[in-house]
Amino acid sequence: MEPEPDSGKKSLTRRDVLKLGLAAGAAAAAAAGRPLHDRVTAAQLVPPAHSGHGDFSGTVGDVDLSRFDPTEFLTAFDWGQESAGPDGRTLREWEVVAVDREIEIAPGVFFPAWTYNGQVPGPTFRCVEGDRLRFRFFNRSSHPHTIHFHGFHPPSMDGVEPLVQPGEEFIYEFTARPFGVHPYHCHVMSLKKHIHKGLYGTLIIDPPGGRPPARELVMVMNAFDPNFDGENEVYAVNTVAFHYMKHPVQVRAGELVRVYLVNITEFDLVNSFHLHAGMFRLYRTGTSLDFFEWTDTVTMGQGERAVLEFILEEPGRYMFHAHQSEFAELGWTGFFEALA
After folding, report:
1. How far is CA 312 from CA 53, 65, 218, in A?
2. Model confidence, pTM
3. What is the dihedral of CA 309, 311, 317, 320, to 10 degrees?
4. Secondary structure class of 53 (helix, strand, coil)
5. Interatomic CA distance for residues 283 and 142, integer angstroms
6. What are 17-28's pLDDT values in tens digits?
7. Which pLDDT tens digit goes with each residue over 34-79?
8. What is each CA distance from 66 to 29, 69, 111, 112, in whole angstroms?
9. Where in the chain is the domain with CATH 2.60.40.420?
10. pLDDT tens, residue by residue, 248-269
11. Dmax of the chain from CA atoms?
12. Pick the CATH number of 71-206 from 2.60.40.420, 2.120.10.30, 3.90.780.10, 3.40.50.850
């Protein structure tokens, strides 16, 4: 790209990311004239090819896990405040606050996000089909926002209008249906900006009889454009690049694992999930308990989602990653660690 007229510096491209490593640090990156973002203070992504086979971590150092821990997010299901509604059905209530917050998407790489409840992705809300859901939405951000839920609900609860202005609030209330996995996100224009900046999350609606017991995990495929050139430079599951390489997802060999998988990636037409050394049952959208595909790779457009069920038969590390190689090399890769 051409240097900016007033700075003489280039914007970092995807390929530039792969060329820069932490060893040189932020000073070397600045000297090369390729800053990832004005707020980069400590690190750049390290090319996975430069890591040894036993230390395929992709970055050096770690993010501040006290602010957001992708491992904890995997199993953080928010059932809301439960009570009996006037019609006898279960009523679940949540408070959701839109707030501007800087997040760390790789060690030392910061992104000025718009968030639900201060995190990206937003909370994973969970309920049972037929429950009455009530979301009290407060906009404490600097821009108008909404919450649009996928699934059935009245048009007045669709999150397209009214726009909730800064300082205002709105109550979304509807009956949870159908069972399955449903993304939610802001629906204010420019839609791509509000989604890319971080206003999205997952709503899981369980079938009335539940699903078979399993080790359950939420994985949201997302990406970030820290230099705002309309192309993603950092890819991840649950926001932090290469997190599950450094902190493998621990499961038990022989146990049923269930992944609630959502693609919310902006700027790229599709994203994908590939499992090594095994295969999974793929229940698209999670709205059927009977019909599934038997595969090891699923490709999704933005807003598509699925339930994946699999058993890792032997102890060891099983890699998973996007089957777009560039996405994997820019952060979207990890391990399941099956323990004996």
Report:
1. 21, 28, 18
2. 0.87
3. -20
4. helix
5. 39
6. 544 433 333 333
7. 344 443 333 455 544 444 434 445 678 999 999 999 999 999 999 9
8. 27, 7, 17, 18
9. 71-206, 215-339
10. 999 999 999 999 999 999 999 9
11. 66
12. 2.60.40.420
Whole-Å CA distances, 96 to 20, 141, 240: 38, 12, 22
Task: Please state, in angstroms and rounded to a whole number, the distance separating the CA atoms of residues 57 and 244.
Answer: 8
pLDDT, position 305: 98
**Nearest residue to 218 via CA among 182, 248, 261, 251:** 261
Q: Does pLDDT of 11 surpass 90? A: no
Report whether pLDDT(103) > 50: yes
Contacts of 247 (CB under 8 A, 6+ apart): 70, 71
Closest CA to 219 of 205, 246, 240: 240
Dig out the tokens for 248 from the structure. Answer: 């493998």
DSSP, collapsed to helix, strand or coil, labels residue 16 as helix
CA distances from 282 to 235, 249, 250, 263, 305 (A): 23, 20, 21, 14, 10
CATH class of 215-339: mainly beta
What's the Rg (C-alpha) of the chain?
A: 20
Kind of pairing between the strands at 280-284 and 293-295? antiparallel
Tokens of 110: 């910061």
| Residue 221 · residue 70 · CB < 8 Å | no
Between the alpha carbon of residue 47 and those of residues 21, 156, 320, 331, the distances in Å are: 7, 48, 17, 9
| Residue whose C-alpha is closest to residue 76's, from 135, 149, 131, 125 | 125
Neighbours of 261 (CB within 10 A): 24
In three-state secondary structure terms, 29 is helix
**Is residue 174 over pLDDT 80?**
yes
